[in-house]
TrEMBL record:
Protein name stated in the entry: Gap junction epsilon-1 protein
Protein's organism: Melospiza melodia
Keyword line: Cell membrane, Disulfide bond, Membrane, Transmembrane, Transmembrane helix, Transport
UniProt domain Connexin cysteine-rich: residue ranges: 125-194
The keyword Mitochondrion appears for this protein: no
GO molecular function: gap junction channel activity
Family, per entry: Belongs to the connexin family. Beta-type (group I) subfamily.
Signal peptide: none
Compartment(s) where it occurs, according to its Swiss-Prot or TrEMBL record: Cell membrane
Length: 205
C-alpha cells in the first residue's frame, strides 16, 4: 500500500464524514481508551494478587480467582474496543483503496450505504458486547464470592473469597456500561445525521 493510501486511511479513521462521527472518534479514541487504559489498570491491575479465600492458600486463591474471572475485565473491554473499530476500519481502508474523498462519501448512494452499514455493524457489536458484559460481570461486584472448590479438595465444596475494592469495581462497571450506551446513541445519531444530509435538511460538509 502506497503512502497516499496510508494517509487517506488514517485521515478517514480520524476524520469521518459526519460531525457526530468525528465526535464519536474523539469520545471513543480519547475518553474511553484513556479511562480503560489508565483507570482500568489502577482498579483491576493487582486484583489477582489481593484476591484471597479461606483457607488462604495459593492454589485455592488461583483456582477461585479463575472461577471468579473467566476473562479479566481489561482484556474483555480491550477486545470490545478493537472489534468495534473493525467495521469503520474496513470502510476507510476500502475508501483509501478506491481513492474516495471523505466529502464524497455522502454524495454517492453506494458509498453512503456502505458507510451506514459499517455504522450499523458497530451498533450490533456494541449491543452484543453489552449483553456479554452482563453475562460475565453483572451490574455489581459483591464483597464476598462463594467459590466451588469441590474439584480441588474433597474436604470442602464451598469456600468464601474476599473481592478487593469491590465498590470501585462496581463504579467502573457502571461507567463502562454507560460508555457503551453513549457510543450506541452516537452511532444512531450519526445515521440520523446522514439521513438528514441526504434529504437536504442539513447542509453536506
Amino acid at each position: 500500500m502506497s503512502p497516499n493510501y496510508v494517509r487517506s486511511f488514517s485521515e478517514g479513521c480520524l476524520r469521518p464524514p459526519t460531525v457526530i462521527g468525528q465526535f464519536h472518534t474523539l469520545f471513543f479514541g480519547s475518553i474511553r481508551m484513556f479511562f480503560l487504559g489508565v483507570l482500568g489498570f489502577a482498579v483491576y491491575g493487582n486484583e489477582a494478587l489481593h484476591f484471597s479465600c479461606d483457607p488462604d492458600k495459593r492454589e485455592v486463591n488461583l483456582f477461585c480467582y479463575n472461577q471468579f474471572r473467566p476473562i479479566t475485565p481489561q482484556v474483555f473491554w480491550a477486545l470490545q474496543l478493537v472489534i468495534v473499530l473493525v467495521p469503520g476500519a474496513f470502510f476507510h481502508l476500502y475508501a483509501a483503496c478506491k481513492s474516495i474523498k471523505q466529502e464524497d462519501i455522502l454524495q454517492k448512494s453506494s458509498y453512503t450505504g456502505f458507510y451506514i452499514f459499517s455504522v450499523f455493524l458497530r451498533i450490533v457489536l456494541e449491543v452484543v458486547a453489552f449483553w456479554l458484559q452482563i453475562q460475565l460481570f453483572g451490574f455489581k461486584v459483591n464483597a464476598i464470592y462463594m467459590c466451588d472448590v469441590g474439584a480441588l479438595d474433597k474436604k470442602f465444596n464451598i469456600t468464601r473469597c474476599m473481592v478487593p475494592e469491590h465498590f470501585e469495581k462496581t463504579i467502573f462497571l457502571i461507567a463502562m456500561y454507560t460508555f457503551t450506551v453513549i457510543t450506541v446513541i452516537l452511532c444512531v445519531a450519526e445515521i440520523f445525521e446522514i439521513s438528514c444530509r441526504r434529504l437536504g435538511i442539513l447542509k453536506t460538509q
